[in-house]
Amino acid sequence: MKTLREVPCGQNAKVTRLTGEGPVRRRIMDMGITKGVDVFVRKVAPLGDPVEVTVRGYELSLRKADAEMIIVE
């Protein structure tokens, strides 16, 4: 089990589940990141925040803490 934060740049990952609760989980889901979706990691800032990803054709920036709540395979 690994998180989106651990996926190297230039790699795809499939979301298996989301951790977290309440508004944080809702914010992640509102970005289109749900179970079964493919996420492509485009870039990670030098200190790891933010993580830039492509989801469903959209380019998004995620906070490091949010990326750690997304479990991928």
UniProtKB/TrEMBL annotation:
Presence of keyword Phosphoprotein: no
SMART domains per UniProt: FeoA
Keyword annotations from UniProtKB, A to Z: Iron
GO molecular function (one): transition metal ion binding
Record domain Ferrous iron transporter FeoA-like: where: 2-73
Pfam families, alphabetized: FeoA
The protein, known as: Ferrous iron transport protein A
Organism: Murimonas intestini
